[in-house]
Amino acid sequence: MTIDKAKLMASAERAALKQRPGVSDPIICIPVAATDVLALLAEIERLTEQNENLLECRSAVNASVALENEALRKERVPAGLYRELVALRELRDQAKSYVDGYLQDEVEDADSCISEEQHLSAAALSESLMDAFEAHWDAAMAKEVSHG
Predict the structure, then answer these.
(1) What pLDDT, in 10s, does the model give residues 108-125?
(2) Separation between Cα atoms, residue 90 and residue 97, nearest integer Å
(3) Rounded to a whole number, what is the distance in angstroms from the first to the last CA of the chain?
(4) How far apart are CA 124 and CA 135, in angstroms?
(5) Over the stretch 8-22, which tens digit does the pLDDT of each residue have?
(6) Which residue among 3, 7, 34, 37 is buried most deeply as judged by most CB within 10 Å?
(7) d(Cα 123, Cα 17) in Å, to the nearest integer?
(8) What is the pLDDT of residue 123?
(9) Secondary structure of 74-121 in the HEC alphabet?
(10) Measuring CA to CA, how many Å separate 121 from each of 29, 95, 104, 145?
(11) Pick from 6, 28, 32, 9: nearest CA to 19
(12) Please, are residues 65 and 55 in contact by the beta-carbon 8 Å criterion?
């Protein structure tokens, strides 16, 4: 923003004439020296430029924050899905506890089972769990190789 110094001086003279109508030379009524007015004008121009720069920076920061918020929103897991994940983790932990505590004994020692059918079921379950683990492992490795 540029300030027209001549218009400013004319406005000051008109204001001075209104304040002291009987005075013919309005400059006498202005209590501010011309050098002070010019210094103030320079300061106004500097502050105006600084304000414009700050507004540009603010706009850039707002745009950056908006992009970051959008990215975070996309990464956030919905609450319902998160509850399901927690339930699945608990189920996984319970299954691991069963496998570690009982299934291995039932597979390795038929005498620890109530019946032959329990032993066969435990062996089939153990085999299915191993197949699922291998499939999960293979999928995870394939995904890692494709990303790496």
Answers:
(1) 777 777 888 888 888 888
(2) 10
(3) 54
(4) 16
(5) 777 777 776 666 666
(6) 37
(7) 108
(8) 84
(9) HHCCCHHHHHHHHHHHHHHHHHHHHHHHHHHHHHHCHHHCCCHHHHHH
(10) 108, 15, 12, 36
(11) 28
(12) no
> At 143, phi and psi to the nearest 5?
-65, -40
Give 107: exposed, middle or buried? Use CB within 10 Å, 0-12, 13-18, 19+: buried
Helix (H) or strand (E) run with residue 1 in it: none
Using CA atoms, how far residue 78 sits from 28, 67, 89, in Å, is: 74, 20, 17
Say if residue 94 is exposed, middle or buried (CB neighbours under 10 Å; 0-12, 13-18, 19+): exposed
Look at residues 122, 132, 120 and name the one whose alpha carbon lies nearest to residue 102.
122
